[in-house]
Design brief:
heterodimer; A: alpha/beta; 5-stranded parallel beta sheet; 16 helices; globular; B: alpha/beta; 4-stranded antiparallel beta sheet; 4-stranded parallel beta sheet; 8 helices; 8 strands; about 15% strand
């Protein structure tokens, strides 16, 4: 019998095409998601070298980064954004790649569209020219973000030249406190291991807390694996995974679905398999988390305080805290729940799914957005939007004073018209609080949808459980 | 792909840790459909304030670093977004080598696709080199020999570095990855035929 393997080992081994003389591996790529920002130069490269897309049917394209989230019937106003989206449309059409345009209700953020369509399945290798491809790891698929050169390589060969990463296991033990979400769990993980803690690793998230998460919650956790520096995040697929996939347009059906389940079940990490690194985190110590600074590791509990550079562990850390405080316009030792916000962004591939919107509606119902706050809700896809409207969530949002938009990446990275103005402070459900990420000079605090909704109501960061 | 073998040039110290790719090339410059011409936007929001005025304290704006071909940076350089626009803007600016204590994974790989050599050295050595760079010294980088040499106070200094031999070969030979992989087309077809038997649902006829 062969040595026990991890989930990552198994998916890796199942996709080896060949091993090059230099020890690198040609790894087969089962599915490739494409969006408008990181693909034009790849298609151009193919054209220049006279190469073709090897497997257009394994490739799915949609426009998400640049698309407007209002007045869609007027098209895209910015000429550069418009050209980029049109270029994707042309490239998809010329290469026989399925493309979901802005006018299609299935359009949305690639990482939300993939799972919704059943394009994402357990045991697959999935890539996309986007770092948040790690999201798909929630299905037990090995999924990671690549640069444009590798997008071109994937288009031309349906493979990538890879070196295997190391195995890390993050085990969440104990039970979560009431009101603690997947977002709080992943923020607490990043706080503990840091933004480079996962560099060189694929992380498998384990423990009952992870098992008990919904598929949406698992996607939130895996989504931010990249913020911990990891190449990918993985969660062992189980009944919840099959239940989610059943009946999706591109998922197998009938007898084939049953056969697939048997295969998917065989992917779980074997007893006795070795991880290169094991990190344990106690769930009962996690309460709602927010970021105070300009790195996703700048995480603090909602009952905490803005850090004081005087207490930094090193000179370098001190300089980096000072820089972040200066950018964020914050004073050391300020209680977190006294920080006022004037913008709220609910959406993104981290938290733009139906479950997130349902959670927000529970907070919003019968309450009003504080008068100085502009709060946007951007569904992750047209189907999320449709479902929310079917459930009447849009009415609750609008009644409470939220701005209900069309789907896209929107203010997560502010490539479209949705952006923060300098010094505006935003409670955001997205994944990055980098300097200028949501708009030049804008100040981002990352948190769960419930916490962002509560910030909209109170006009300041607040523990939503106290509302 | 552009080859890298030897390089002589001055270096720009960037004394910030966790420099993310949003910082290297802000999103407003990602709307291009070309790879070229991004050099002038490198570190745009660190170079110019919100009114478009030059920020004098930022190294890229200081005359002594004109024409620099090396960047000496802090740890976890290039974290965040996978945008290859980051190495494109660095290369287009004229930087062919980066020295830092560590890099984010995707950025590190992207460098090799664009003829940029990312050298890893310990934090103390990097900090020392940043100080040295301020004296506008020329550094000689020799990838074949895996060393950095420079003259300081009339004394010849040498620092050696480690690099994965495969990545080294790629840079020195400027290999076309795609061409090489396409030479293995029959192995790829064999894999597909076998996979279609083992997991046929991956090869189904469903479309959307």
């Amino acid at each position: 019998m062969s040595a026990p393997k991890t989930l990552y080992d198994k998916i890796w081994d199942n996709h080896i095409v060949s091993i090059n003389d230099d020890g690198t591996t040609i790894l087969y790529i089962d599915r490739h998601l494409v969006h408008e920002v990181t693909s034009p130069q790849a298609f151009e490269g193919l054209r220049m070298s006279g190469r073709k897309v090897r497997r257009p049917e394994f490739t799915l394209a949609t426009a998400d980064h640049n698309v407007p989230t209002m007045d869609r019937d007027k098209g895209i106003a910015d000429p550069d954004s418009k050209l980029q989206v049109e270029t994707l449309e042309r490239n998809a059409s010329e290469n026989n790649i399925t493309y979901l345009p802005m006018s299609d209700k299935r359009q949305g953020i690639v990482h939300i569209v993939g799972p919704e369509q059943g394009f994402t399945q357990p045991g697959m290798t999935i890539v996309c020219g986007d770092s948040h491809t790690s999201t798909h790891g929630a299905f037990g698929a090995l999924a990671w973000g690549i640069g444009t050169s590798e997008v071109e390589h994937t288009l031309a060969t349906q493979t990538l030249i890879q070196t295997k990463a190391k195995n890390m296991c993050i085990k969440i033990t104990g039970e979560v406190v009431d009101g603690v979400t997947a977002k709080d769990i992943i923020l607490a993980i990043i706080k503990k291991i840091g933004t480079a803690g996962g560099t060189g690793y694929v992380i498998e998230y384990t423990g009952d807390v992870i098992k008990n998460l919904s598929m949406e919650g698992r996607m939130t956790v895996c989504n931010m694996s990249i913020e911990a520096g990891a190449r990918a995040g993985l969660i062992s697929p189980d009944e919840k995974t099959w239940e989610y996939l059943k009946g999706r347009p591109l998922a197998p059906s009938g007898e084939e679905f049953e056969t697939a389940i048997k295969y998917w079940q065989s992917l779980a990490t074997d007893e006795g398999a070795q991880y290169d690194e094991i990190v344990e985190i106690k769930a009962d110590e996690i309460i709602p988390q927010v970021t105070w600074g300009t790195s996703p590791e700048d995480v603090v509990s909602i009952d905490g305080y803005v850090p004081d550079p005087k207490n930094a562990s090193s000179d370098e850390k001190k300089r980096s805290i000072e820089r972040a405080l200066d950018y964020m316009g914050l004073e050391p030792n300020t209680p977190i729940n006294e920080i006022e916000v004037n913008k709220v962004f609910i959406g993104s591939c981290t938290n733009g799914r139906i479950e997130d919107l349902r959670a927000v509606s529970k907070i919003a119902k019968g309450r009003k957005v504080e008068k100085n706050v502009h709060a946007m809700i951007v569904p992750g896809s047209g189907l999320v939007k449709e479902q929310a409207e079917k459930e009447g969530l849009d009415k609750i949002f609008i009644e409470a004073g939220f701005d209900w938009r069309d789907p896209g990446c929107s203010m997560c990275l502010a490539m479209n018209a949705d952006k923060l103005k300098p010094q505006e402070r935003c409670a955001s459900t997205s994944n990055r609080n980098f300097e200028g990420r949501q708009g030049r000079g804008g100040r981002t605090h990352l948190m769960s949808p419930q916490m962002a909704a509560a910030a909209a109501i109170k006009g300041k960061l607040t523990d939503f459980r106290d509302l | 792909m552009e080859k890298f073998n030897k390089l002589t040039g001055n270096a720009i110290p960037i004394r910030i840790t966790n420099v993310d790719t949003d910082m290297i090339i802000p999103k407003q410059f990602l709307k291009t459909i070309k790879r070229t011409g991004l050099g002038e936007y490198l570190f745009f929001e660190l170079k110019f304030d919100q009114d478009g005025n030059k920020i004098d304290s930022f190294a890229l704006n200081q005359d002594q670093y004109n024409g620099a071909s090396i960047l000496i940076a802090g740890k976890n350089f290039g974290c965040g977004s996978s945008r290859e626009h980051a190495p494109w803007s660095i290369a287009d600016y004229g930087i062919k080598c980066i020295i830092a204590p560590s890099y984010a994974d995707i950025f590190y790989n992207n460098c090799f696709k664009n003829g940029i050599l990312p050298i890893i050295l310990d934090e103390e050595t990097v900090a020392k080199l940043q100080d040295t760079a301020e004296n506008t010294l020329n550094f000689n980088i020799d990838l074949e020999k895996q060393n950095i040499t420079y003259l300081e106070n009339n004394e010849q200094k040498e620092i050696t570095f480690e690099i994965d031999p495969v990545k080294k070969k790629c840079l020195i030979e400027g290999l076309d990855d795609i061409g090489l992989t396409l030479n293995k087309s029959s192995s790829i077809s064999d894999f597909e035929n076998n996979q279609a038997k083992e997991t046929p649902w991956l090869y189904g006829s469903k479309t959307i």
